[in-house]
Amino acid sequence: GENVEQHPSTLSVQEGDSAVIKCTYSDSASNYFPWYKQELGKGPQLIIDIRSNVGEKKDQRIAVTLNKTAKHFSLHITETQPEDSAVYFCAASKSPGYALNFGKGTSLLVTP
Amino acid sequence: KAGVTQTPRYLIKTRGQQVTLSCSPISGHRSVSWYQQTPGQGLQFLFEYFSETQRNKGNFPGRFSGRQFSNSRSEMNVSTLELGDSALYLCASSPNPGQGAEAFFGQGTRLTVV
What are the chain A neighbours of B58 within 8 Å (beta carbons)? Predict the structure, then answer.
C-alpha cells in the first residue's frame, strides 16, 4: 500500500521567515496530494492541494510543488505569522474524495 | 452550509465495552470516510462509505465496523474496546469521489478507554 513520509516532525521559525515541509510517497498510482492544517482541538482543514498533472500551485502565502518522477511534494509557507502555528499533514490518494494516506505530521511553531 | 458534525465530542468507556460514534456529512455529500488519529500512529484510514456501501477498508481488526444510512449519515462501532483504541476518531465527507472534490473533516470524537 501507499507509504507517505513527512519531514521534519517539528519546525520552529521566526515570524516573517519561510517554512518548508517535505513529503515522499511510494505508490505511483497516487494522483492527488492535499495538505491539511490541524489546530488544537479541531479536525484537519484543507489548505491547499495539487493533482498529478500540475507541478506547482500557489495560494497567497502558501505554495505546493510536486515532482512525480521523484515521488515527492513540498509545502512552502512564506512570510509566516504566529497564527500559522499548527500541525501540518501531507497526504496522498488516487483521487480527491478517496481514502487518504497521511504523513505523520509536522508541528510548526512561529515565534514573534 | 453546516460542516461535518460528529457526536459525541468526548466519550469515556471501559475496556471490553462497545461504542458507537456518529457522523453527519455536509448536506449533499454522499461519501463518508473514517480515520483514527493517535500520537503514535498519526492519521490512519479506517473505512469509506458511499451510497450505503463500504467501498474501501483500512487495515484494522474486525472489531471496527461501520455503516451508512440512506440519508448519508454514518456510524462506526468498536466492540470489545481495548486501551489502545483510545484516539481521536475523525469523519470526512465529500460529494462523490468520482467528481474530484476534496474531503472535509469534522472536529472528531475523542474516545478514552479506561
Answer: 99
A105 has a chain B CB within 8 A of its CB? yes
Query: Cα A38 vs. chain centroid, distance in angstroms?
Result: 11
Question: pLDDT by residue (tens digit) across B82-111?
Answer: 999 999 999 999 987 666 678 899 999 999
- Burial category of B90 from C-beta neighbours within 10 Å (exposed 0-12, middle 13-18, buried 19 and up): buried
Torsion of CA A43, A46, A50, A52, to 10 degrees: 30
pLDDT in tens, B43-92: 999 999 999 999 999 999 999 999 999 999 999 999 999 999 999 999 99
A52 burial (CB, 10 Å; 0-12 / 13-18 / 19+) is: middle
- A-B Cβ pairs (cutoff 8 Å, strict): 65
Residue with cell 458507537: B20
Q: Give the integer Cα–Cα distance in Å for B103 and B105.
A: 7
CA angle B42, B49, B105 (to 5 degrees): 45
pLDDT of residue A53: 86
Express the helix, strand and coil content of chain A in percent, nearest 5 each: 5, 55, 40
Contacts of B5 in chain A (CB under 8 A): none
Closest residue on chain A to B46 (Cα): A99
